[in-house]
Amino acid sequence: MILLDTDVIIEVLDKYSHKGQALMLKLIESGEEYCTSSVNMHEVLYGINKYSKDSRLVLQLLVLGYSKSDSELSAVLELSAERKGKSVPRLDAIVASIAINNGCSLYTLDEHFEVFTDMGLKLFR
Question: Most exposed residue of 11, 26, 85, 123, measured as fewest CB within 10 angstroms of its CB?
Fold first, then answer.
């Protein structure tokens, strides 16, 4: 299963984005199922609602919630990144923990997620 990060969803939803078309093609060619997290869904829906866009398409995505075990792992991930001198946004540590605990590969355009690969995060490339 591939967990879609907010930046990938935004690009894919932008019908004028050539990058989004390429990202979607790569996802389709993988043959894998995909989902997003509750955190990413919030971020995407915030933007859709802010700019009065239609949310029906994005609401069809499978959404993984944020559990107690995810909160435990995200705290460890965030602290580990800080100790390496590579602070990352808290929400990204949360997304990484959801991906790791659900056995998902994360599809993202953000390079700072690399800091979590030694802690079990798989990145979809």
Answer: 85
Q: Beta-carbon neighbour count of residue 117 at 10 Å?
A: 12
**What tens digit of pLDDT does each residue of 41-68 get?**
999 999 999 887 888 889 999 999 999 9
Q: Is the pTM of this model over 0.85?
A: yes
Query: What is the fold, at CATH topology level, of the domain defined by 2-123?
Result: Rossmann fold (3.40.50)
* Domain coordinates in residue numbering, the chain: 2-123
Q: Any residues with CB less than 8 A from the CB of 105 and at least 6 apart, and which?
A: 1, 2, 3, 32, 99, 122, 123, 124
